[in-house]
Amino acid sequence: MSRILYKYLDITGAKSMIGNQDLQFTNAYQLNDPFDCHPKLFDYSNVPESRRERWIPDEWLKEEEENDALNSRNETWLCSLSKVNDSLLMWSHYCYNHKGVCIGLDIEKVMESVPPMFGFIHLKPFVLDVHYQEIIKRPSAFGPSAGQRMYQWTTKAKEWQYEQEVRLIMPNPIQAYAAFTPEQVKHPKEVWDPREIRHYMPLKGECFESIYFGINIDPTEKDTIIKYARKKLNPQINLYQMRVDDNAFKLQPERCPLK
Q1: DSSP, residue by residue, 208-248
Q2: How many domains does the structure of the chain reveal?
Q3: Could you give the dihedral angle defined by the CA atoms of residues 166, 171, 174 and 179, in that order, rounded to the nearest 10 degrees?
Q4: Phi and psi of 219, rounded to 5°?
Q5: In 129-211, where does DSSP find H-type helix?
Q6: 107: helix, strand or coil
Q7: In principle, which of 166, 185, 210, 257 could form an S-S bond with 104, CB 3.0–4.6 Å?
Q8: Helix/strand/coil for 146
Q9: Does residue 79 contact residue 200 with C-beta atoms inside 8 Å?
């Protein structure tokens, strides 16, 4: 069975993603959680004997490790998806009070859509579940580098657990897939911080498995998306209208009628 993951968007973001058939990757530094991929997720206090050298002070080794973690954060772009399509909080926060949409993506087909050399080093994004925890005991910064990166990419505070996030992670995407957002085009700068630039991975129409419309979506916007999705995006796409459950604080999807 295909694995479907979901992207919550306001109406402007949804029309852009559907119309351009792409997936936006944002630098980890630019995410709405200031702790995301932060170097302080690690413990730098104890330098192992295997790393010590007679002429290098421990403080220099600690600083080197923290700089490596900072560089890893600055060089990481990611796309946040969710395992669920009915989160009340995400419909409120990311879809502007239920006025947007939630797009279901077939991840197997998404990975088949990745163009050659989307990443400078890794050819395809990593698909990783986020783990939620309290910072009770941080792992040593001097562990194996592969494990360090995975921990840094996937660890978030328990307050975010409701999102049930899965991340597509691409270190160092190449500039061919970089582009300004419409808002950045309106407010140009002489010099841009590279971390401010998004990267857009093209998708085939078949990647779009479903679209869920928010309870408060504008009917005209909904009709426009339905017509485009069925004619130009994916004729087999599943379309749903979210409704209030009469018996619980839950949302229920109702299949949109064929026209």
Answers
A1: EEEEEE-TT--HHHHHHHHHHIIIII-TT-EEEEEEE-TTS
A2: 1
A3: 50
A4: -60, -35
A5: 145-154, 182-186
A6: helix
A7: 210
A8: helix
A9: no
Return the C-alpha torsion angle 62, 141, 77, 102, nearest 10.
-140
Structure tokens at 91: 């419909």
pLDDT in tens, the chain (259 residues): 579 999 999 999 999 999 999 999 999 999 999 999 999 999 998 888 877 777 788 888 899 999 999 999 999 999 999 999 999 999 999 999 999 999 999 999 999 999 988 988 788 999 999 999 987 788 999 888 778 899 999 999 999 999 999 999 999 999 999 999 988 999 999 999 999 999 999 999 999 999 999 999 999 999 999 999 999 999 999 999 999 988 889 999 999 987 6
Domain ranges, residue 142: 4-255
Nearest Cα neighbor of 198 from 63, 20, 3, 68 is 20
Amino acid at 244: V
Tokens for 168?
Answer: 């597509």
